[in-house]
Model the fold of this input.
Amino acid sequence: MTNGSVTTTQYRIGFGLLLLVCFALNLGGWPLFDVDEGAFSAATMHMGQTGDLITTYLYGEPRFDKPILIYYLQLISTQIFGSNEFAYRLPSAVAGILWVLALYQFCSSVGSKKTASYVAVLMMTSLGVWSIARFATVDSVLNLLLCLAFIDIYRYYERPTKSLLLRVFVWLGLGLLAKGPIAVAVPLAGAAVLFIATGQRIRLLKAIFNPYGWAIMIMIAAPWYWLAYLEQGQAFIEGFFITHNVERFAATMEGHGGYLWYYLPIVFIVFLPNSGLLIPLLTRTRFQLLDPLSIYCWGTFAFVFCFFSLSSTQLPHYLLYGLSPLAILIARHYEQGSPPHLLLHLTPSLAFSLIIANFPTIAKTVEQKTTDVHLSAMISPLSDMDMGWFYLLAWLFVGLHLLLFVVKTSLMQRIIALGVCQALTLSLAFIPVVGELKQGPVKRAAMEAKSREETVVMWNANAPSFATYYGQSISRRLPLSNELLFTRVDYLAPMSQDEVVFEEGGWVLILKK
Done:
C-alpha cells in the first residue's frame, strides 16, 4: 500500500522519528529546573528512600500540591534508570508520545488520514506540548488523560455503549490521581456542551450519574485520598483541596497572577512555530454551520480558556488542557480550505527564532541593566561559555524561515520543517544553555555538598533540585555551627564571617563557623 510515492512503512518510520526528535532527543541534556522539576524530583527521591507511598515530602514537610500518580511513575522510572534527569522526565515524554498517538488514531477514525496527520504534527511540534513532554512535572500525564477522556466521550456520543462510558470513568479516576478535580471538570464541561447543544440532555444526565462508572472512578481514586487523609488528617484537606484547588482559583498563589486577557497571547505562544494558523481559524469559522465534533472542540477549548482566564492564579500550561480540541479544529479547517498566507504563517515563528538567536545579546543587556545581584551573577558565566553550537542551530532556524519564503512548499512540509528545526534548536542549544546558566551551579553545589560530611541546610532560597542532586532531604532553616548553608549570593551579607566553600552563578555554599 502506498501514499503517493511513500510506502506505509516509510511513513510510519518517518512519523516515529519525528516523535522521537520532538519528545525524546537529549531528554537528560540539562539540569532539572527549579521550582517545579526540582520539587517533583525531590519528593520522588524522598519517597524512594523512605518507602512512604502515600504522602510526598519536600524540605521535610508534606507536599500537598499534587496527587500521587506522577510520583509513582517517576519512582518506577528512577528504579529502572537511576536518579537522573532522563529518568525523572521519561514519564512525561512517554505520556506526550501517547497523547499524540491517541489523537492521531481518533482523528483517523472520525475523519481522514490527512486530518489525523495534521493534528499529530501540529501537536508534536507545538512549543507548549514540546515543553511539558520534556520536563519532569505532572502536566504531560494529565493532558494524556484529558485527551483520552475527550476522545471516549465523543465516541460514546456517536456509539453509546457501556464499555465506552465506563472507560471514560477510568480516565477520570486516573485524572483525579494525577491532578485532582480539574481532571473531571474539563471533560464534564466539554461533554455538557456537546450533549446539550445536540439536544441529548437526558443521555448526558444518565451518563454522568451512571452508578457503575462512579464505582470505577471511586475504586481508582478513593484509596489514595482516604489513606492520605488517615495519615495527614485535616492538614491534607486544607493543603490539597482548600489551598491548591479552591484558593488557587480564588487568590493569586506564588506570584502567578494575571489578567483577564492573559491567555490571548499565551495561545499564540504555545502553538509556535505554527501560531499563524490560528488567525484564519478564529476569523473565518462559520459557527452557524458547526457539526457535533466542532461544537465539542470549541466548547471544550472555550471552557478551558474562560475558566482559567477568570482564575486568580494563571500559568501558561493551564491552557494546554484545551489544546487537543484546538489542534483538531485547526487541522479540519485547513483540510477543508486553502492554506494560510505564507507571510501570516511564517512571521510569528520567525520572530521567535530571532529572539532565540539573539538570546546571548539580550541576556548580556539584562545583566548590564539589572540591579538584582543574583540575576546578574547567574547571567555572567554566559561570556565564558562555548556558544558555537548554539549560534549554528539558532541561525539555521532563522535561515530556514528565509528559505521557506523563497522555496515553494506545502503547508504540511512547512509545519514539519519548522517544528523539527525548533525542536532541535531548543533541545540541543537553547534549553541546555539556559539550564546551565540557571541550574548548573545548583547541581554543582549539591555535588560539592555531597562530597563533604557536614549537615546541609537551605535558607532564604527555594531550589528543591539541590536536594535531588544532594541525594537527601534537606531542611530550610538558619544553619548551626559546623553546618553547610546553601543560599543565594544576595543573602550572603549576614554570613560574611563564615567560610564560603562554593560560589558560582548566584549561589553559595557556606560553612557556618
